[in-house]
Write a structure and sequence with these properties.
Strand content: 15-25%
Number of domains: 1
Distance between the termini: 29 Å
Bound molecules: zinc ion
Shape: globular
Number of helices: 2
Largest sheet: 3 strands, antiparallel
Structural class: alpha+beta
Helix content: 25-40%
């Protein structure tokens, strides 16, 4: 159950658990960090307030 339209920032605990394989792909080799949530991702579309690292 992939959540492509949702940013990583909005994942809740159950979504993190259920999509952990996808999560690892998203956070591998991070290029962006979310200024609001302190999460990191490879693609800026995965974050709500992305800023390049
Ligand atoms: Zn965010």
């Amino acid at each position: 159950m992939a959540k492509d339209s949702k940013t990583l920032c909005k994942w809740d605990k159950d979504e993190i658990k259920d999509n952990f394989k996808e999560l690892k792909k998203i956070v591998a080799e991070p290029r962006y960090v979310c200024r609001k949530c302190a999460r990191a991702a490879k693609k800026e579309e995965n974050l709500c307030k992305p800023e390049e690292i």
